[in-house]
Amino acid sequence: MSLGTPWASAWYVFVAVTAFITTLMWSFVYLLSIREALKIPINWVLSLISTTVETLFYFIAFIVILTSVYGTYGRNVAAGVFGIINMLAYGYSSYILYQEHRTGAATITQ
C-alpha cells in the first residue's frame, strides 16, 4: 500500500482497524453475555448501525485504494480486493440483522 497516496493508505488502514475493533467489541459483548450480566439495554439496532457504517466505510475505502494506484500496483489491488470481500461480508451481516429487526426476531427479553 506504500505505492498509493499516503492519505488513501491511511484511510484504508483506519477503516480496517476500526471495523476490527468494533467487531471484536460486539463479539465480546454477545459471546461473553455482558449485556445480560450488566442489564444494559443494548439491542440489535446498534449492531445493525455499526455494520452498516462499516459497510459504507469499506465501500469508500476500496474505491479510494483502487483509484490511488501508481506504478506497480500489486499491494493496492490486493488491499482493494480484500476491501471488497470485507464490504460484502459486512453488507451481508447488515442485511441479516435488518431482516431480523424487521421480523422482530431480535427483540430484547428482560
Give an overview in words:
- This protein has four helices and no strands.
- With 110 residues, the chain is mostly helical.
- The chain has one domain (6-103).
- α1 runs antiparallel to α3 (44-67).
- The longest helix is centred in the last third of the chain and has 30 residues, at 74-103.
- The model has no long low-confidence stretch (mean pLDDT 81).
Offer a few descriptive terms:
single chain, about 110 residues, mainly alpha, 4 helices, about 0% strand
The biggest beta sheet is recorded as: none
The secondary-structure class comes to mainly alpha
Query: What is the 3D form?
Result: elongated
How many β-strand stretches? 0
Q: Helical percent range?
A: over 70%
Membrane topology: Multi-pass membrane protein
Organism: Leptidea sinapis
Keywords: Membrane, Transmembrane, Transmembrane helix
Domain MARVEL: 1-102
What's this entry about, in short?
The protein has 110 residues and is mainly alpha-helical. The protein is 77% helix and 0% strand.
